[in-house]
């Protein structure tokens, strides 16, 4: 509780120094309040922030994910989407990692991650790789394969990390036959 008091003092200093409207400072304060365990104050602070960019939302989601339950994080994600801020690859990585860590069948499903991915305006190697890895962790062979082929058809070349994730997914889901190895190897 002592750190929360000190955090509020730093926040007061930012206001007195007239730098409390800078995005970086606001994001640091969001992280500070959430790590002090004050989710209600964190949420209030988010709503008082005049400029809520994707960076601010991702900071909020990541900070809350470190200290609270998945349903609470999901509420912030829904708020972000409701505010017309589309998720990006950082959002997807954060949420997918959170669900994977929970290892709970309800949270472990990738429906939310898939919806976020579908809403993305610009899908890139990172977003594809993250979702392929998530499906691989769940053993969803068809979805992992479909995404890999879609990534290639979109002209997105897999890098070393993507290839490692795909190979790991194939091993996990025990996808047998020459397709996986030759297709992955052809894109190394």
Automatic annotation (TrEMBL):
Protein source organism: Vanilla planifolia
Protein's recorded name: Pentatricopeptide repeat-containing protein
Sequence ranges of the PPR repeats: 124-158
Matching InterPro entries: PPR_At4g14850-like_plant (IPR046960), PPR_rpt (IPR002885), TPR-like_helical_dom_sf (IPR011990)
Swiss-Prot/TrEMBL keywords: Repeat
GO molecular function terms noted in the UniProt entry: RNA binding
Superkingdom, natural source: Eukaryota
Any one biological process term the GO annotation gives: RNA modification
Upper classification of the organism: Eukaryota, Viridiplantae, Streptophyta, Embryophyta, Tracheophyta
Cited PROSITE patterns: PPR
Cross-referenced NCBIfam families: PPR
PANTHER family listed in its UniProt record: PENTATRICOPEPTIDE REPEAT-CONTAINING PROTEIN (PTHR47926)
């Amino acid at each position: 509780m002592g750190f929360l008091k000190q955090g509020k003092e730093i926040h007061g200093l930012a206001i007195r120094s007239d730098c409390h409207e800078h995005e970086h400072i606001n994001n640091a304060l969001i992280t500070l309040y959430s790590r002090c365990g004050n989710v209600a104050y964190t949420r209030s602070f988010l709503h008082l922030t005049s400029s809520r960019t994707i960076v601010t939302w991702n900071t909020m989601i990541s900070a809350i994910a470190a200290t609270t339950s998945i349903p609470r994080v999901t509420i912030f994600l829904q708020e972000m989407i409701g505010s017309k801020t589309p998720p990006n690859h950082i959002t997807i990585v954060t949420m997918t990692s959170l669900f994977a860590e929970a290892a709970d069948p309800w949270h472990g499903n990738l429906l939310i991650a898939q919806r976020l991915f579908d809403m993305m305006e610009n899908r890139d190697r990172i977003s594809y790789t993250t979702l392929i890895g998530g499906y691989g962790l769940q053993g969803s062979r068809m979805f992992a394969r479909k995404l890999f082929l879609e990534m290639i058809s979109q002209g997105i070349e897999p890098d070393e990390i993507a290839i490692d994730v795909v190979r790991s997914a194939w091993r996990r889901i025990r996808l047998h036959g020459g397709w996986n190895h030759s297709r992955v190897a052809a894109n190394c």
